[in-house]
Amino acid sequence: MKKFIVILLAIASLPVVAQKRTYSTTGGELIFSFANPTINGQTASNTVRFSPFFNIQTMVHHDLSDHFGIITGFSLRNVGFIFDDPASPGTYYKTRNYTVGLPIGLKAGNFDGRFIYAGYEIEFPFNYKQKKFVNDEKVDKFDEWFSRRVPTFYHTLFVGVGLVEGTQLKFKYYLTNWFNKSYTDGAGNQPYANFDANVFYISLSFQILRGSRFYYKDKSSGL
């Protein structure tokens, strides 16, 4: 992964004069997330989590030619997963993080139509929230700013395809375990010591702005 990041950074450092055009796009994501949780060696079943709100991303595009370019940017994302407690039938949890992400990647294809892209993104969680349900009744809820229950940052990889009219379909995988396994609560317990979970999701994104103008207006004007 380190070699992959170095290659991306090397391409990103190419002289500006080699770029055909530079512009930004801003839009949102509809995220359908999953995980592969294992608790104390037992597989915990999970269901899809849908998060349509407060997923915002601004991407800076450096088109080096008509069919090849690099992307970077900034994201604000609501991502998490839902899982059952295998040791307690009828009990399940909903967990999520708000994160700030810094992506970098490559893209190739027809940038006014279909193209593919892939890259790496580091995400920094800043608000963790958890809900506990027993027999479909919510019995506990809390959220924490800059929680020690989760890592300081997540390493992630993504791949996607640009479709028509600014829509994109993306797959993303979190290489870092969702929880901080060394976290110790006030009673001296380590609730995540034997909890392994890597989140992944599929999202449908849509671009609203190109620069400071509406995407569709700019596209039709050729800007």
Describe this structure in words.
There is one protein chain. This protein is mainly β and 223 residues long. It has one domain: Porin. It has two helices and 15 strands. The chain has helices at residues 2-12, 215-221; strands at 21-34, 38-39, 42-43, 46-47, 49-51, 56-63, 68-84, 91-109, 115-134, 137-145, 154-162, 167-174, 195-196, 200-210, 213-214. The strands form two sheets. Strands 1-6-7-8-9-11-12-14 form an eight-stranded antiparallel β-barrel. The chain has a three-stranded antiparallel β-sheet with strand order 3-2-13, with no helix packed on it. A hairpin with a 2-residue loop joins strand 2 and strand 3. The longest helix is centred in the first third of the chain and has 11 residues, at 2-12. It is elongated and about 60 Å long. 25% of the residues are buried. The mean pLDDT is 89.
A few lines on this structure:
The chain is mainly beta.
Class, according to the CATH hierarchy? Mainly Beta
**Overall average pLDDT:** 89
Helix content: under 10%
The order of strands across the largest sheet is 1-6-7-8-9-11-12-14
3D shape: elongated
What are the segments in which pLDDT stays under 50 over at least 5 consecutive residues? none
CATH architecture: Beta Barrel
Tell me the number of structural domains: 1
Radius of gyration: 20 Å
- What count of helical segments does DSSP give? 2
User: How many strand elements?
Assistant: 15
SS content category: mainly beta
User: What distance separates the N and C termini?
Assistant: 35 Å
* Beta-strand residue fraction: over 45%
**Secondary-structure element order, N to C:** HEEEEEEEEEEEEEEEH
CATH topology: the name is: Porin
What characterizes the major β-sheet?
Answer: 8 strands, antiparallel, barrel
